Structures are given as C-alpha cells and as structure tokens.
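Supplementary Text 2. Reproducibility record for the structural model of the 296-residue chain.

All settings were left at their defaults, and a single model was retained for analysis rather than an ensemble. We include the record here because the model underlies the residue-level annotations in Supplementary Table 4.
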Amino acid sequence: MKELRAFFLTGTLLSTACVSAAKYDAALEDASKAKAEMERLRAESEQQKQANAAQLDKLNSDLQAARTSLQEHENQLSQANVQSHNLQAKLDESTAISQRLREELQRLGKNVDGLLSEKGTMSRSLEEAKQRLEELRKAQAATEARTALFKQLIQKFKKMTDAGQLRIELRDGRMILQLPNDVLFDSGQAVVKPDGQRAIGQVGGVLKTLTGRKFQVAGHTDNVPIDRAKFASNWELSTARAVAVVHILVSQGVPNEALSAAGYGEYAPLIANDTAEHKAKNRRIEISLVPAWKSS
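Retained model, structure tokens:
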C-alpha cells in the first residue's frame, strides 16, 4: 500500500515538473521573439533617423544655395546703371534668376512639407528650416517687386536719363533718383532754375503715381566752403536746396506726408573731391524711395 502511494506521488510530481518546464520554454521563446522585434524596430528607427538627418542636411544645403543665389541677384541688380548700354540685358538676367529662384523655392517648400509630415526627433529642425525658407520667400518677393519698380522707373524716365538730367541707381537696398546739381541750381544758390523746375516737375509727375512709398529728398555739396552770407555752411545750403525741391514736388501733386528733406552738405560724397569733374558729381540732389511705414 505504501509502495502504491509513493508511485502515485512520484507521478504527480513528474507531471507538475513537466508542465512548468513547458511554460518556461514557451516564455523563453516569447522573450527571444520580443527581443528580436525590439532589435528590428531599433534598427529601423536608426535608419529612419539617419535618413531624416540626410534629408535635413540636403534641405539646409539647398536653402543656403538659394540664399546665395538671391544675394547674387541683389548684387547684380544693385550694380545696374541706366547709362550702361547693356542695362536691359542685366535686367533680363535678373528676371531669369528670379524665375529660377521661384522654382527652387517651390521645390524646397514641397520637401519641407513632406518631411514635416513624418514624426520623430527631426521635427524641430525641420520647422526651423521651414521658417528660414519662408524668410527667403519673402526676400525673393521683395527683390522681384524692387526689380519690377526699377524697370518701371527706367521706362518712365528714359528721356531724362538719355538727356543726362537724371540717374537711377540702387544703393544700400534703396532706389535713388539722382539729379545733377548744375541742372537745378546756380553756384551757392538754393533757388531752382527754370530748367531744373521742369526736370523736377517731370519727376514729381511719376512719383505721385507710386503708392506705398515715401520719398526723402537729400541735398549734397562738394567740399568747397560756402562764401555766401545767406548760408553759414554747406549743411545749410544743401538743406535749403532739398526743401526747395520738396516744394516743387508738392506743387506737382506728391503728397506732403510722403516727403521729407535732408541736407548732408559735403559729408556723403560719391567720390573723392579731388578734381573739378568729381566735385561736380558730388553736387547733387538725391530722391530716395523708401517703403511707407504704418502708424500703430
């Protein structure tokens, strides 16, 4: 009887041991599969991260290339001179550059939008890239608008520029209409001569058609000291001349609030005052076109 009880007890223990081993083996197999899956997911995640990083590097490189191209476009436009016989060719080249930049910006925009749709640690960098792209787009739009206005002014002032009464140039990001002083004033005087009044009248007829712009009229002299009792220095003379031009522009319909006057005297020369010809070039009136600011 004791032997029978021992037999059944031994069988029960063996049965229990077999079930525990089977569960252990199954759990071990599941753990191995989970580990393998984790390794696979980690590898895929690393590959995706590297791919996103490569795309971001490419995007940043494209953005820098577009920014460089835009700066070159600005530089080319700034060097344009209405007296040059190949000015139209330069403007056509600038227009072509603008078109290529516009197409490149569209392509970059699609790349950024596509990358931003993917989740991951690259989102912040991609968002920054998109912001830089937007800034570049705004700069490109401003450049195209400036180019269009520059062409418009060249066409409208063609007769005056051909006659040597006016120069149009870009300087420090501003469009400037430059009138030689000898056309407008006698030496040491701030009264506009009849020919000068007609020239300023033609300029005013165009300026009053330009919306969203303000105009600063600046007087400049050479470095020869003034010997007229009416003016204490070249500052006073240059300022008086600028104010005289402002009054004529107002009489032509240019709004008062769009105009300002400044006198630089001899302290903003275009070139050195070392010859009579250079001094003549420094004696001038400049009308700068600036964006109109909005009051808050």
